[in-house]
């Protein structure tokens, strides 16, 4: 079951997964833990949110003893028990269909398995990559196209309705893709789709140290960006046509998609906090006004893109293998189903002020604890002083009583 604390107001939620640790939801304004789900061995890109209707958090899981793979279906804003959905093989990347009817999981064999929800039955399995693992999955913004990246450096694009309509027994080795791109010379690490449906762009990153931008319609190459190291996460800012890459060295690298004549990032800033930990996730929040970054050692930062300033930061309870920003739509579902308060959109200044208020509240609570401790210490001291006076009074009384019994008066004279 999930354990819950009081949800905070405003902003998106940040879901963080760790290997062998609970999946935890944090309030992006305060960093408070909103929900904590049972532990799972979740790899990179192994989190997905299933909405609307059911409102589940899905997490890939591989048993450390048997090596058997499964998908854990965690109830959002509910105390219902966790369900474990069996899969034909260990899976890592997950993505949910737009209407919550299916969950797509990428396997180590190169196949993608479509699980019906809420039953968990395997509706179909189809080949995405030849004999190598599926490393990342993404859907475009209208949910019509599925993009798959693999350890072979290939990017494959599928029509979602087509692959979901195929009988699981007849797919075999049939290639259901619309097209395939020999995109990179090394494994693909992440995929991100922009806005615009089928006319959007798609960005891919690889262990070859490059990010590439393609047209989603036909896979035409638009831009190659060379990075100083591997990017593990990507996100696109559609209003300003920028690409943000979270890299292994803890830096966020930014490139303009309008400048197709460059092969290097336009700007960079360090988001790794006080360590050199890799960035395992970047994502947009607050209508693309804020960028959320998260390192593998649990440093979460919320950045105002207009000013480039850090408006909030906090640390998770443990190391992080995958992170997901839960958008406002998921919050509305949570409110409708569980009575939890929804999330309001805030600009960067409001985020900063809310963060300051949260820190002031925390400092106030700490001062109240210190005050209580001080009062307890004073009360203990007073109690000890009272006991000391009582002992002195008893000793004086005892001595005085003994003198009277021996015939000595209060002035020291011996009575007649």
TrEMBL record:
Annotated GO biological process: DNA-templated DNA replication; rRNA processing
Phosphoprotein as UniProt keyword: no
Family matches, as PROSITE patterns: WD_REPEATS_2 (PS50082)
Recorded superkingdom: Eukaryota
InterPro entries documented for this protein: WD40_rpt, WDR18/Ipi3/RID3
PANTHER family noted in UniProt: OS09G0477800 PROTEIN, WD-REPEAT PROTEIN 18
Pfam families named in the record: WD40
Ranges: WD repeats: 181-224
Protein name: Uncharacterized protein
Native species: Zizania palustris
Keywords, ordered alphabetically: WD repeat
Cellular component, GO annotation: nuclear pre-replicative complex; rixosome complex
């Amino acid at each position: 079951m999930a354990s819950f604390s009081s949800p905070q107001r405003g902003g998106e939620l940040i879901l963080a997964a760790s290997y062998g640790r609970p999946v935890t939801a944090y309030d992006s304004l305060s960093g408070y833990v909103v929900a904590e789900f049972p532990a799972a061995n979740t790899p990179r890109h192994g989190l997905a949110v299933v909405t609307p209707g059911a409102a589940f958090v899905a997490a890939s899981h591989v048993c450390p003893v048997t090596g058997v793979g499964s998908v854990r279906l965690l109830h959002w804003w509910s105390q219902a028990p966790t369900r474990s959905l069996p899969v034909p093989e260990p899976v890592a990347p997950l993505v949910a269909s737009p209407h919550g009817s299916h969950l797509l999981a990428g396997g180590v064999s190169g196949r993608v398995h479509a699980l019906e929800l809420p039953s968990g039955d395997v509706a179909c399995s189809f080949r995405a990559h030849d004999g190598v693992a599926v490393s990342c999955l993404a859907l475009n913004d209208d949910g019509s196209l599925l993009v798959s990246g693999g350890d072979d450096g290939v990017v494959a694009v599928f029509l979602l309705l087509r692959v979901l309509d195929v009988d699981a027994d007849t797919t075999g080795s049939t290639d259901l893709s619309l097209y395939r791109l020999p995109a990179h010379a090394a494994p693909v690490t992440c995929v991100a789709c922009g806005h615009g449906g089928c006319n959007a762009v798609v960005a891919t990153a690889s262990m070859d140290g490059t990010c590439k931008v393609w047209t989603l319609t036909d896979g035409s190459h638009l831009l190659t960006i060379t990075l100083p190291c591997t990017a593990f996460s990507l996100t696109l800012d559609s209003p300003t046509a920028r690409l943000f890459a979270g890299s292994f060295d803890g830096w966020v690298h930014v490139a303009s998609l309008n400048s197709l004549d460059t092969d290097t990032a336009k700007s960079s800033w360090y988001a790794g906090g006080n360590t050199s930990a890799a960035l395992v996730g970047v994502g947009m929040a607050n209508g693309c006004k804020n960028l959320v970054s998260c390192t593998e050692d649990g440093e979460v930062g919320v950045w105002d893109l207009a000013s480039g300033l850090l408006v909030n930061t906090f640390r998770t309870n443990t190391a992080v293998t995958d992170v997901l920003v839960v958008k406002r739509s998921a919050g509305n579902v949570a409110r409708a189903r569980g009575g939890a308060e929804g999330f309001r959109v805030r600009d960067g200044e409001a985020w900063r002020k809310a963060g300051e208020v949260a820190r002031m509240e925390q400092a106030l609570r700490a001062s109240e604890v210190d005050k209580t401790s001080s009062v307890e210490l004073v009360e203990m001291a007073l109690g000890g002083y009272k006991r000391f006076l009582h002992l002195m009074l008893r000793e004086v009384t005892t001595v005085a009583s003994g003198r009277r019994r021996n015939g000595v008066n209060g002035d020291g004279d011996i009575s007649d």
